[in-house]
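During the reporting period the student researcher (J.K.) took over the structure-prediction task from the postdoctoral fellow and processed the backlog of single-chain submissions. One of the processed entries is reproduced below for the supervisory committee.
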Amino acid sequence: MNIYEKISKFFVENPIKLFTLFILITIGLALSYSFIPYRGDASTSPKDPIIDLDIEISKKFSDEVHFTLFLLETPNGEDILSQKYLYEILKASQELRDKDIKKQLSPETIESKSHLFRYVDSETGIEVEGILTLADVVDNILKLNPKYNKNLESASNQEVKEVISELLKGDQIKDLKRNISINSNVEKRNINGNEIDWWTSPAMLIVILGDNESLGGGSQRVALGGDKNTLDKENYNIRVLDVLKEELTSLNVWGIAIDVNLEGERQGYSSALFITLTVIAAVAVVGFSLRSYWAVVLIGIGLSTLMIWLKGISFLLGLKGGLIADFIVPIAMISFGVDFGVHAIRRYQEEKNTKISYNKKFIVAFGGVGSALTLAFISDSIAFLSN
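J.K. obtained the following C-alpha coordinates:
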Protein backbone atom coordinates (compact mmCIF):
# COMPACT_ATOMS: atom_id res chain seq x y z
CA MET A 1 0.00 0.00 0.00
CA ASN A 2 1.58 3.30 -1.13
CA ILE A 3 1.44 6.59 0.76
CA TYR A 4 -1.57 7.86 -1.23
CA GLU A 5 -3.58 4.76 -0.40
CA LYS A 6 -2.62 5.16 3.27
CA ILE A 7 -3.75 8.79 3.24
CA SER A 8 -7.04 7.95 1.53
CA LYS A 9 -7.63 5.09 3.99
CA PHE A 10 -7.10 7.52 6.88
CA PHE A 11 -9.69 9.84 5.30
CA VAL A 12 -12.18 6.98 5.02
CA GLU A 13 -11.69 5.91 8.64
CA ASN A 14 -12.07 9.43 10.13
CA PRO A 15 -14.52 11.36 7.93
CA ILE A 16 -16.43 13.28 10.63
CA LYS A 17 -13.34 14.39 12.54
CA LEU A 18 -11.55 15.51 9.39
CA PHE A 19 -14.60 17.30 8.01
CA THR A 20 -15.15 19.17 11.30
CA LEU A 21 -11.47 20.14 11.47
CA PHE A 22 -11.60 21.24 7.84
CA ILE A 23 -14.62 23.51 8.47
CA LEU A 24 -13.08 25.06 11.60
CA ILE A 25 -9.77 25.80 9.88
CA THR A 26 -11.54 27.31 6.87
CA ILE A 27 -13.64 29.60 9.08
CA GLY A 28 -10.54 30.61 11.06
CA LEU A 29 -8.58 31.44 7.91
CA ALA A 30 -11.52 33.38 6.49
CA LEU A 31 -11.72 35.48 9.67
CA SER A 32 -7.98 36.17 9.58
CA TYR A 33 -8.62 38.83 6.90
CA SER A 34 -10.48 40.92 9.49
CA PHE A 35 -7.84 40.79 12.23
CA ILE A 36 -4.52 40.81 10.38
CA PRO A 37 -3.64 44.08 8.56
CA TYR A 38 -2.59 43.98 4.92
CA ARG A 39 1.21 44.03 4.72
CA GLY A 40 1.45 45.64 1.29
CA ASP A 41 3.15 44.36 -1.84
CA ALA A 42 6.42 42.48 -1.83
CA SER A 43 9.49 44.48 -2.84
CA THR A 44 11.09 43.81 -6.21
CA SER A 45 14.48 44.65 -4.68
CA PRO A 46 15.84 41.51 -2.97
CA LYS A 47 18.05 41.57 0.12
CA ASP A 48 21.51 42.37 -1.13
CA PRO A 49 24.47 44.37 0.24
CA ILE A 50 24.15 46.93 -2.57
CA ILE A 51 20.38 47.30 -2.10
CA ASP A 52 20.78 47.54 1.68
CA LEU A 53 23.47 50.22 1.28
CA ASP A 54 21.23 52.17 -1.10
CA ILE A 55 18.37 52.07 1.43
CA GLU A 56 20.71 53.16 4.24
CA ILE A 57 22.02 56.07 2.15
CA SER A 58 18.47 57.15 1.27
CA LYS A 59 17.62 57.30 4.98
CA LYS A 60 20.63 59.46 5.87
CA PHE A 61 20.93 61.61 2.74
CA SER A 62 17.62 62.92 1.46
CA ASP A 63 17.27 64.10 -2.15
CA GLU A 64 16.61 67.80 -2.60
CA VAL A 65 14.35 67.39 -5.63
CA HIS A 66 11.59 64.92 -6.50
CA PHE A 67 11.50 64.32 -10.26
CA THR A 68 8.29 63.45 -12.12
CA LEU A 69 8.51 62.74 -15.85
CA PHE A 70 5.64 63.05 -18.34
CA LEU A 71 5.33 62.37 -22.05
CA LEU A 72 3.20 64.76 -24.11
CA GLU A 73 2.08 63.41 -27.48
CA THR A 74 -0.07 64.80 -30.28
CA PRO A 75 -2.93 62.43 -31.18
CA ASN A 76 -2.33 62.24 -34.95
CA GLY A 77 1.41 62.82 -35.22
CA GLU A 78 0.95 66.59 -35.52
CA ASP A 79 3.67 69.08 -34.65
CA ILE A 80 3.84 69.68 -30.89
CA LEU A 81 6.34 72.51 -31.51
CA SER A 82 3.67 74.63 -33.18
CA GLN A 83 2.31 77.80 -31.57
CA LYS A 84 -1.03 76.12 -30.87
CA TYR A 85 0.34 73.27 -28.76
CA LEU A 86 3.15 75.24 -27.09
CA TYR A 87 0.65 77.82 -25.88
CA GLU A 88 -1.54 75.04 -24.51
CA ILE A 89 1.48 73.62 -22.64
CA LEU A 90 2.32 77.10 -21.32
CA LYS A 91 -1.22 77.54 -19.94
CA ALA A 92 -1.15 74.08 -18.35
CA SER A 93 2.18 74.88 -16.67
CA GLN A 94 0.78 78.09 -15.20
CA GLU A 95 -2.36 76.31 -14.01
CA LEU A 96 -0.18 73.73 -12.27
CA ARG A 97 1.74 76.51 -10.49
CA ASP A 98 -1.52 78.22 -9.47
CA LYS A 99 -2.91 75.01 -7.98
CA ASP A 100 0.36 74.48 -6.13
CA ILE A 101 0.14 77.96 -4.60
CA LYS A 102 -3.40 77.10 -3.48
CA LYS A 103 -2.00 73.88 -1.93
CA GLN A 104 -4.21 71.70 -4.12
CA LEU A 105 -1.44 69.28 -5.12
CA SER A 106 -0.94 67.93 -1.59
CA PRO A 107 -2.06 64.32 -1.01
CA GLU A 108 -4.57 63.86 1.80
CA THR A 109 -2.01 61.93 3.87
CA ILE A 110 0.45 64.82 4.28
CA GLU A 111 0.27 68.45 5.36
CA SER A 112 -1.21 70.81 2.76
CA LYS A 113 1.55 73.05 1.44
CA SER A 114 3.27 74.16 -1.74
CA HIS A 115 5.38 71.37 -3.25
CA LEU A 116 6.89 72.70 -6.49
CA PHE A 117 10.66 73.26 -6.35
CA ARG A 118 11.87 76.80 -7.05
CA TYR A 119 15.27 77.57 -8.57
CA VAL A 120 17.02 79.62 -11.27
CA ASP A 121 17.80 77.66 -14.43
CA SER A 122 21.51 77.86 -15.24
CA GLU A 123 21.02 77.59 -19.03
CA THR A 124 18.27 80.16 -19.57
CA GLY A 125 18.51 82.32 -16.45
CA ILE A 126 14.77 81.93 -15.95
CA GLU A 127 13.39 81.71 -12.41
CA VAL A 128 11.60 78.36 -12.42
CA GLU A 129 8.64 77.32 -10.28
CA GLY A 130 8.55 73.55 -10.57
CA ILE A 131 8.35 73.24 -14.35
CA LEU A 132 10.36 74.62 -17.26
CA THR A 133 9.36 73.67 -20.80
CA LEU A 134 10.30 74.87 -24.25
CA ALA A 135 7.04 76.83 -24.20
CA ASP A 136 8.27 78.87 -21.19
CA VAL A 137 11.56 79.69 -22.90
CA VAL A 138 9.90 80.67 -26.19
CA ASP A 139 7.38 82.85 -24.35
CA ASN A 140 10.18 84.55 -22.40
CA ILE A 141 12.18 85.35 -25.56
CA LEU A 142 9.11 86.67 -27.39
CA LYS A 143 8.49 89.08 -24.50
CA LEU A 144 12.09 90.28 -24.09
CA ASN A 145 13.19 90.49 -27.74
CA PRO A 146 12.29 93.93 -29.20
CA LYS A 147 11.90 92.27 -32.60
CA TYR A 148 8.75 90.53 -31.37
CA ASN A 149 7.64 92.33 -28.18
CA LYS A 150 4.70 89.98 -27.65
CA ASN A 151 3.83 86.82 -25.75
CA LEU A 152 3.31 83.28 -26.98
CA GLU A 153 -0.47 83.71 -27.11
CA SER A 154 -0.33 86.49 -29.72
CA ALA A 155 2.70 85.21 -31.67
CA SER A 156 2.32 83.60 -35.09
CA ASN A 157 3.48 80.07 -35.83
CA GLN A 158 6.31 81.42 -38.04
CA GLU A 159 7.59 83.65 -35.23
CA VAL A 160 7.56 80.69 -32.85
CA LYS A 161 9.52 78.62 -35.37
CA GLU A 162 12.09 81.41 -35.75
CA VAL A 163 12.67 81.49 -31.99
CA ILE A 164 12.91 77.69 -31.78
CA SER A 165 15.42 77.69 -34.65
CA GLU A 166 17.71 80.09 -32.78
CA LEU A 167 17.32 78.22 -29.50
CA LEU A 168 18.14 74.78 -30.87
CA LYS A 169 21.14 75.80 -32.99
CA GLY A 170 23.64 75.50 -30.16
CA ASP A 171 23.80 73.92 -26.73
CA GLN A 172 22.27 76.83 -24.84
CA ILE A 173 19.22 74.73 -23.86
CA LYS A 174 20.65 71.23 -24.30
CA ASP A 175 18.51 69.76 -21.49
CA LEU A 176 15.27 70.94 -23.12
CA LYS A 177 16.57 69.87 -26.53
CA ARG A 178 17.07 66.34 -25.24
CA ASN A 179 13.40 66.25 -24.23
CA ILE A 180 12.22 66.53 -27.84
CA SER A 181 11.20 63.24 -29.47
CA ILE A 182 13.80 61.22 -31.39
CA ASN A 183 11.23 61.21 -34.20
CA SER A 184 11.56 64.97 -34.57
CA ASN A 185 12.46 66.43 -37.93
CA VAL A 186 14.29 69.58 -39.05
CA GLU A 187 14.36 71.12 -42.50
CA LYS A 188 15.58 74.38 -44.01
CA ARG A 189 12.94 77.01 -44.79
CA ASN A 190 13.11 80.61 -45.97
CA ILE A 191 11.07 82.97 -43.77
CA ASN A 192 11.04 86.68 -44.72
CA GLY A 193 14.35 86.29 -46.54
CA ASN A 194 16.02 84.43 -43.66
CA GLU A 195 16.83 80.73 -43.74
CA ILE A 196 15.85 78.97 -40.52
CA ASP A 197 15.74 75.42 -39.16
CA TRP A 198 12.06 74.44 -39.17
CA TRP A 199 11.72 71.96 -36.31
CA THR A 200 8.76 69.58 -36.01
CA SER A 201 8.13 66.85 -33.46
CA PRO A 202 5.17 64.59 -32.55
CA ALA A 203 6.00 64.49 -28.84
CA MET A 204 8.14 65.86 -26.03
CA LEU A 205 9.03 65.11 -22.42
CA ILE A 206 8.44 67.50 -19.55
CA VAL A 207 9.85 67.26 -16.04
CA ILE A 208 8.01 68.45 -12.93
CA LEU A 209 10.35 69.23 -10.03
CA GLY A 210 8.94 68.90 -6.53
CA ASP A 211 10.43 69.92 -3.19
CA ASN A 212 11.37 66.49 -1.85
CA GLU A 213 11.45 67.63 1.77
CA SER A 214 7.86 68.90 1.61
CA LEU A 215 6.81 65.47 0.31
CA GLY A 216 8.36 63.57 3.20
CA GLY A 217 12.02 63.43 2.21
CA GLY A 218 14.01 60.29 1.49
CA SER A 219 15.53 59.02 -1.71
CA GLN A 220 13.60 58.58 -4.95
CA ARG A 221 13.36 54.90 -5.93
CA VAL A 222 11.10 53.23 -8.50
CA ALA A 223 10.27 49.82 -7.02
CA LEU A 224 7.40 47.88 -5.50
CA GLY A 225 7.11 47.63 -1.74
CA GLY A 226 7.57 51.34 -1.07
CA ASP A 227 7.04 52.97 2.33
CA LYS A 228 4.54 55.69 3.27
CA ASN A 229 6.73 58.46 1.81
CA THR A 230 6.84 56.65 -1.52
CA LEU A 231 3.05 56.27 -1.57
CA ASP A 232 2.61 59.95 -0.66
CA LYS A 233 4.84 60.98 -3.56
CA GLU A 234 2.96 58.71 -5.95
CA ASN A 235 -0.34 60.28 -4.86
CA TYR A 236 1.23 63.69 -5.50
CA ASN A 237 2.36 62.49 -8.95
CA ILE A 238 -1.21 61.41 -9.74
CA ARG A 239 -2.55 64.84 -8.76
CA VAL A 240 -0.04 66.50 -11.06
CA LEU A 241 -1.05 64.11 -13.86
CA ASP A 242 -4.73 64.93 -13.31
CA VAL A 243 -4.03 68.66 -13.66
CA LEU A 244 -2.05 68.15 -16.88
CA LYS A 245 -4.73 65.91 -18.39
CA GLU A 246 -7.43 68.39 -17.46
CA GLU A 247 -5.58 71.29 -19.12
CA LEU A 248 -3.94 69.54 -22.10
CA THR A 249 -7.18 68.30 -23.64
CA SER A 250 -5.81 68.10 -27.20
CA LEU A 251 -2.70 66.12 -26.19
CA ASN A 252 -2.12 62.64 -24.84
CA VAL A 253 -0.40 62.84 -21.45
CA TRP A 254 1.49 59.83 -20.08
CA GLY A 255 3.19 59.59 -16.71
CA ILE A 256 6.43 57.60 -16.74
CA ALA A 257 6.80 55.27 -13.71
CA ILE A 258 4.92 57.74 -11.50
CA ASP A 259 2.70 55.31 -9.55
CA VAL A 260 4.34 51.88 -9.47
CA ASN A 261 3.07 50.95 -6.00
CA LEU A 262 -0.42 52.39 -6.47
CA GLU A 263 -0.75 50.52 -9.76
CA GLY A 264 0.43 47.35 -8.02
CA GLU A 265 -2.36 47.77 -5.47
CA ARG A 266 -4.93 48.33 -8.23
CA GLN A 267 -3.76 45.22 -10.07
CA GLY A 268 -3.94 43.25 -6.84
CA TYR A 269 -7.58 44.25 -6.38
CA SER A 270 -8.44 43.53 -10.02
CA SER A 271 -6.79 40.09 -9.81
CA ALA A 272 -9.78 38.87 -7.78
CA LEU A 273 -11.99 39.29 -10.87
CA PHE A 274 -9.62 37.30 -13.09
CA ILE A 275 -9.27 34.56 -10.48
CA THR A 276 -13.07 34.34 -10.19
CA LEU A 277 -13.37 34.05 -13.98
CA THR A 278 -10.68 31.35 -13.93
CA VAL A 279 -12.65 29.38 -11.33
CA ILE A 280 -15.86 29.72 -13.37
CA ALA A 281 -14.09 28.57 -16.54
CA ALA A 282 -12.48 25.63 -14.71
CA VAL A 283 -15.79 24.54 -13.20
CA ALA A 284 -17.46 24.81 -16.63
CA VAL A 285 -14.80 22.52 -18.11
CA VAL A 286 -15.43 20.04 -15.30
CA GLY A 287 -19.16 20.11 -16.03
CA PHE A 288 -18.64 19.38 -19.72
CA SER A 289 -16.05 16.66 -19.18
CA LEU A 290 -17.62 14.77 -16.25
CA ARG A 291 -21.29 15.56 -16.96
CA SER A 292 -22.05 15.40 -13.27
CA TYR A 293 -23.84 18.11 -11.29
CA TRP A 294 -22.36 16.93 -8.01
CA ALA A 295 -18.84 16.90 -9.46
CA VAL A 296 -19.26 20.56 -10.49
CA VAL A 297 -20.57 21.52 -7.03
CA LEU A 298 -17.82 19.57 -5.25
CA ILE A 299 -14.97 21.06 -7.29
CA GLY A 300 -16.51 24.56 -7.10
CA ILE A 301 -16.63 24.37 -3.30
CA GLY A 302 -13.13 22.90 -3.25
CA LEU A 303 -11.64 25.70 -5.36
CA SER A 304 -13.37 28.40 -3.30
CA THR A 305 -12.04 26.84 -0.11
CA LEU A 306 -8.60 26.55 -1.69
CA MET A 307 -8.51 30.32 -2.27
CA ILE A 308 -9.50 30.94 1.37
CA TRP A 309 -6.73 28.64 2.59
CA LEU A 310 -4.17 30.16 0.23
CA LYS A 311 -4.90 33.75 1.27
CA GLY A 312 -5.37 32.91 4.95
CA ILE A 313 -2.08 31.01 5.24
CA SER A 314 -0.30 33.82 3.35
CA PHE A 315 -1.68 36.31 5.90
CA LEU A 316 -0.65 34.14 8.86
CA LEU A 317 2.87 33.66 7.51
CA GLY A 318 3.22 37.40 6.89
CA LEU A 319 3.71 37.00 3.14
CA LYS A 320 3.27 40.22 1.21
CA GLY A 321 1.12 40.56 -1.88
CA GLY A 322 2.12 41.25 -5.45
CA LEU A 323 1.70 39.97 -8.99
CA ILE A 324 3.04 36.49 -8.18
CA ALA A 325 1.27 35.97 -4.83
CA ASP A 326 -2.06 37.55 -5.84
CA PHE A 327 -2.37 36.39 -9.43
CA ILE A 328 0.02 33.73 -10.73
CA VAL A 329 0.03 31.44 -7.67
CA PRO A 330 -3.80 31.34 -7.27
CA ILE A 331 -4.28 30.48 -10.96
CA ALA A 332 -1.62 27.76 -10.69
CA MET A 333 -3.35 26.36 -7.59
CA ILE A 334 -6.68 26.36 -9.41
CA SER A 335 -5.08 24.46 -12.29
CA PHE A 336 -3.60 21.81 -9.98
CA GLY A 337 -6.83 21.57 -7.97
CA VAL A 338 -9.00 21.03 -11.04
CA ASP A 339 -6.51 18.49 -12.41
CA PHE A 340 -6.60 16.48 -9.23
CA GLY A 341 -10.39 16.72 -8.87
CA VAL A 342 -11.16 15.70 -12.45
CA HIS A 343 -8.76 12.75 -12.43
CA ALA A 344 -9.89 11.51 -9.01
CA ILE A 345 -13.61 11.78 -9.82
CA ARG A 346 -13.14 10.18 -13.25
CA ARG A 347 -11.21 7.35 -11.63
CA TYR A 348 -14.00 6.98 -9.08
CA GLN A 349 -16.60 6.86 -11.87
CA GLU A 350 -14.65 4.09 -13.59
CA GLU A 351 -14.81 2.02 -10.42
CA LYS A 352 -18.58 2.49 -9.99
CA ASN A 353 -19.45 -0.63 -11.96
CA THR A 354 -17.19 -2.85 -9.88
CA LYS A 355 -18.52 -4.70 -6.85
CA ILE A 356 -16.11 -3.21 -4.32
CA SER A 357 -17.35 -0.86 -1.56
CA TYR A 358 -17.54 2.92 -1.91
CA ASN A 359 -14.73 3.34 0.61
CA LYS A 360 -12.50 1.07 -1.43
CA LYS A 361 -13.42 2.97 -4.60
CA PHE A 362 -12.25 6.21 -2.98
CA ILE A 363 -8.96 4.62 -1.91
CA VAL A 364 -8.35 3.21 -5.40
CA ALA A 365 -9.24 6.52 -7.11
CA PHE A 366 -7.16 8.70 -4.77
CA GLY A 367 -4.18 6.38 -4.80
CA GLY A 368 -4.30 5.90 -8.56
CA VAL A 369 -3.94 9.56 -9.50
CA GLY A 370 -2.02 10.92 -6.50
CA SER A 371 1.47 9.97 -7.63
CA ALA A 372 0.95 11.14 -11.23
CA LEU A 373 -0.41 14.53 -10.19
CA THR A 374 2.29 15.00 -7.55
CA LEU A 375 4.91 14.48 -10.25
CA ALA A 376 3.10 17.00 -12.48
CA PHE A 377 2.94 19.45 -9.57
CA ILE A 378 6.69 19.16 -8.92
CA SER A 379 7.64 19.59 -12.59
CA ASP A 380 5.33 22.59 -13.03
CA SER A 381 6.65 24.16 -9.80
CA ILE A 382 10.20 23.87 -11.09
CA ALA A 383 9.12 25.57 -14.32
CA PHE A 384 7.49 28.43 -12.35
CA LEU A 385 10.56 28.89 -10.15
CA SER A 386 12.93 28.89 -13.11
CA ASN A 387 10.94 31.71 -14.72
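The committee noted the following: The longest helix spans residues 260-290.
J.K. will present the remaining backlog at the next meeting.
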